[in-house]
Amino acid sequence: MELQKLPWAGIRVTTGATSVVIDPLYHFPAVFGQSHEPLFPLGEYGPADAVLITHEHTDHFDPRAIIEAYGADIPVYLPQESVLLAENSGLNRVTGASVGDAFQIGALSATATYSVDGVGDTQIAWALSDGERRLLHCGDTLWHGYWWKIAAAHGPFDAICLPVNGAILERPDLQPPSGMPITLLPEQAVAAAHVLGATRLVPIHHTAIHHPPVYRQTPDWQNRLRTAVGDTMDIAFLNTKETITL
Hints:
Layout: E1 2-5, E2 11-15, E3 18-22, E4 50-52, H1 63-70, E5 75-79, H2 83-88, E6 93-97, E7 102-105, E8 108-114, E9 124-129, E10 134-137, H3 147-154, E11 159-163, E12 168-169, H4 186-195, E13 200-204, E14 215-216, H5 221-229, E15 234-235, E16 243-245
């Protein structure tokens, strides 16, 4: 199983002749200004047999880019509550998923599991397996109490993709602002990885978006992550397009 980093929270997973992408992004949401990391058309990462989406926020679900790269008929799996939005965006093969739903995509099995959204919208995580290796992608979750259930059902994991930017959000429609992070802080990501039995932590959901005061990334996240991990597991700091083999 190979894992390729895409911008922001996206990854591409390949095993044998099967490839899927999770939360791929190309058209950057205008509300966040300019991306702080390069963005590339999705086709530059290679083909995909299916697209998995954790939730419908525009920094995770980019239907125009999906159609441009893979065509409107590519299978797309996303939360059940987001099916109508996806169908109205021009995608033709949309499947809704709730926690526990499993799908076979070529050589990969993909199971929807728990994730908790920082502003209360519907979100799922995706657990992938090729029969030998296991991977988990948690979207932009915040801290929750489902880690132990995920570990029991799907772990241990050879790699876990977790948000690390501890973002503070001040959106006009969410007033007054809470001042609380809506995604995992670096220290929380490490704690979650320990509970989940992860061999390797792959930081996602960082760098591209830092647009105060609307969206503020937590400071010094890389060093804080290294300090929290110590020598307990590997960290894969990947740039866009870099690939690791699990």
